[in-house]
Design brief:
The chain is mainly beta and about 190 residues long. The chain has one helix at about 5-25; strands spanning about 30-40, 45-55, 60-65, 80-90, 95-110, 115-135, 140-150, 150-155, 155-160, 165, 170-175, 180-185. It has one domain (about 30-180). An eight-stranded antiparallel beta barrel has the order 1-2-3-4-5-6-7-12.
Length: about 190
Amino acid sequence: MIPIIPKKVVLISFLLAIAICGFSQNVRGKKNSVFVELPGVSRAVSLHYEGSIYFQDNLGVALGIGFSPWTAEYDYSLFFPIQLKLFYKMGNHMIEAGLEPVPYIWFDYYMGSNGRDKRKGLLDLVVAAQLAYNYSFFKDVFFVGAAFTPYIFFKQYDLRYGQYVGNPYYSFGFQPWGTLRMGCRF
């Protein structure tokens, strides 16, 4: 059964969306960026795209998605980090703070009943907090920066059996991490 949404909620949501979009379009500035992080989410390299919505000339929110292959020594799927950040811009300087959830699948091998190796996929989630500084140059087209991105790990979800695996008493872990980034805005 599809839930019925009251007309007032739809109207208020629509008006709020129009106000935010209209307000953000009046601000001058570059609203899109593409950048590379070294080392990225996968500890190798990651490529990101993000769009920005400005609330004022120097304050806004950025939403982005990235792509990051895992290093060849591990058996993981590709990473697609999703970024949600608040930013504050002062001339050529920008400070960002936000979260970056990264769902991925890692593959585990085990011995089957027939004596052959079998593979199962485990869905995992890493959440990286993010505190970053960027410096832009050449009329705010290019930027370089650094970010502190500590990881928070959660339990793995076994796709084959539809259940969580691992020790029930240790459901998460923490690891400090950082990246260097360079990119362009348009």
